[in-house]
Design brief:
Radius of gyration: 20 Å
Number of strands: 3
Order of helices and strands: HHEHHEEHHHHHHH
Shape: elongated
Distance between the termini: 35 Å
Strand order of the largest sheet: 1-3-2
Largest sheet: 3 strands, antiparallel
Oligomer: single chain
């Protein structure tokens, strides 16, 4: 009973780590006319969705806890409507589940689920990368170096949310070279799901993020060298031990 009260209190307390840009609150400067209502609402929902995804990665939305749209709306300084719409999208993605008359419960993921996601990602991405390694010129791979460096920069400051975004951007760019946008979309959805924290798992350390980011650079080097054995090994190890 006491634990239940503690969880309910945690769900209603303000949380400084969950923020949304001022623009998402419907504010605008005098030099800019207000956006049409429909466009503005879509923008708010998108920014709230981004903020909620970052909160999931950072662990600010705790697995197993129930959060109501009105309470989260107060934290963000917006109405409950865009929060509810964003939460519905997260429910489609499997990040939360609807709790009738209460709100949304953050999904409690297991190590087994994470391993299954890694296996499916490997089945999709490894063959594509091996095929690309055989056919693409070195110059195409070198164009991705800035994206790999961005993951290192985010890891260096221990910013888990930024690292998660940079990590997915790197993998999307690699897979986009295949020209198959459906594959990119499916792989990115799996990647996002793999970034949500496990139940009671310690947060990744900065050293873990740096090690994960270093694998991106090593992978690019192997792809440029067309070393298929190393590419296959690096990609599988990257998925298995990935922190993002």
């Amino acid at each position: 009973m006491e634990q239940g009260r503690a969880r309910e209190a945690a769900a209603t307390q303000p949380h400084a780590s969950i923020r949304v840009p001022e623009q998402a609150r419907g504010e605008h400067t005098h030099s800019e006319p207000p956006a049409p209502r429909l466009v503005q609402r879509h923008s708010v929902r998108g920014q709230i969705l981004d903020a909620l995804r970052s909160a999931l990665v950072d662990g600010d939305l705790v697995p197993g806890e129930v959060y109501s749209a009105p309470v989260l709306g107060e934290r963000f300084g917006v109405s409950a409507t865009p929060v509810r719409e964003a939460m519905q999208q997260l429910a489609v993605e499997g990040a939360v589940e609807v709790v009738p008359n209460r709100g949304f419960r953050v999904a409690e993921r297991s190590a087994r689920e994470l391993a299954e996601l890694a296996e499916v990602r490997a089945l999709i991405e490894v063959p594509v990368m091996l095929r690309l390694a055989r056919t693409l010129p070195v110059a195409r791979w070198s164009e991705l170096l800035p994206l790999a460096e961005a993951t290192v920069a985010a890891a260096a400051v221990g910013d888990r949310a930024s690292y998660a975004e940079c990590d997915r951007a790197f993998h999307r760019a690699v897979l986009a070279l295949s020209g198959n946008q459906q594959l990119v979309a499916v792989a990115d959805d799996l990647h996002r799901r793999s970034q949500w924290p496990l139940v009671s798992a310690p947060a990744p350390r900065r050293a873990d993020l740096l090690a994960d980011a270093a694998e991106h650079t090593a992978l690019l080097e192997a792809l440029m060298a067309q070393d298929l054995t190393v590419v296959q090994s690096l990609v599988r190890e990257h998925f298995t031990g990935s922190v993002g």
